[in-house]
Amino acid sequence: MAFEYDIAAIPARAFAQLAFFCSEKGACSLEDVPVDQAQRLTEMLNEKGADGWELVQLFFQESGVVGIWKREKNFT
Question: Of 68, 72, 75, 76, which has the maximum CB count within 10 A?
Fold first, then answer.
């Protein structure tokens, strides 16, 4: 089985409805996110998943979010 990968950078401005916190040392995490804001992130993940992509890793940083995705490579 072979996989293809995709790295998607989502700028912070795309998360006008999502709050995440970055410390002075650069560590970022979700902090006390209201349900409606978490729903927006869920929608974004489901959109990519509908195309057959599986999330491998999600990184939060001050400039936005970076997602690493994989899916089975189609040889047909």
Answer: 68
Domain residue spans of the chain: 3-72
**14, β-bridge pairs:** none
Q: Sort 69 into a burial class: Cβ within 10 Å, 0-12 / 13-18 / 19+.
A: buried
* pTM score: 0.68
How far is the C-alpha of 62 from the C-alpha of 45, rounded, in Å?
A: 19
**Nearest residue to 66 via CA among 5, 3, 1:** 5
Query: Tens-digit pLDDT profile for the chain (76 aa)?
Result: 899 999 998 887 776 655 666 777 777 666 656 566 677 778 888 999 999 999 999 887 777 788 999 999 975 4
